[in-house]
Amino acid sequence: xxxxxxxxxxxxxxxxxxxxxxxxxxxxxxxxxxxxxxxxxxxxxxxxxxxxxxxxxxxxxxxxxxxxxxxxxxxxxxxxxxxxxxxxxxxxxxxxxxxxxxxxxxxxxxxxxxxxxxxxxxxxxxxxxxxxxxxxxxxxxxxxxxxxxxxxxxxxxxxxxxxxxxxxxxxxxxxxxxxxxxxxxxxxxxxxxxxxxxxxxxxxxxxxxxxxxxxxxxxxxxxxxxxxxxxxxxxxxxxxxxxxxxxxxxxxxxxxxxxxxxxxxxxxxxxxxxxxxxxxxxxxxxxxxx
Length: 290
What we know:
Strand 6 and strand 7 (183-184) form a beta hairpin. The chain is α/β, with parallel strands linked by helices. Helices cover 44% and strands 17% of the residues.
């Protein structure tokens, strides 16, 4: 049985006419247009997704405070990201389908808004990473998501900090790296990275996201062989983020027909990331459920 994930939040909001420039990216709309975030969750559920991934990828207390919010308002918005997805899920409950809410936990580099989530090795000590991640993990957990989506992690250094925190929090989580072929974005062997991710008792699936679709199958097989856990796989369209020009560039290689191969390789959670929208998820749902 495959659990179908949603697609990208940012592209879906941009398609609805929103300018996501600025360091807060999609998180800004938690304050300015929460109904639009809810409508994106609703669109992905309508496309066949079984999981709503919250708009908290780039959200942090620090980031919201720099944006001018009070500490308490920042905390409330992080919790609100989970509540919005829960409200949409609950609105649809009458059809009897099982739907989950996954609280997105992006990397430290995402909050820097300089593309470093695709490079890793930030040059900060582990204590700094812990101080950044722990408050929002606690806030997200307090809102009661079904699981955590730890995603787009670029290196083992950050993973080592996160797995300790995940076991402190105690909620089930998937753990997903941003990769290039069989290495993390920081250039570490992916086998080593998967070992670290699976060392947390709370991690229920390990895999990759926001990578080229062609890199998925081999990485999924390695994840399953290395950890013995189900895999998670949700690539982007195959393009690369140009942090200088603030745009995606390169070739579109996303094809829903690749989905069954990811499942055959061992993926249990399957979906899309940046630039993958509701129509793509609908096509993926049809492909993997034939």
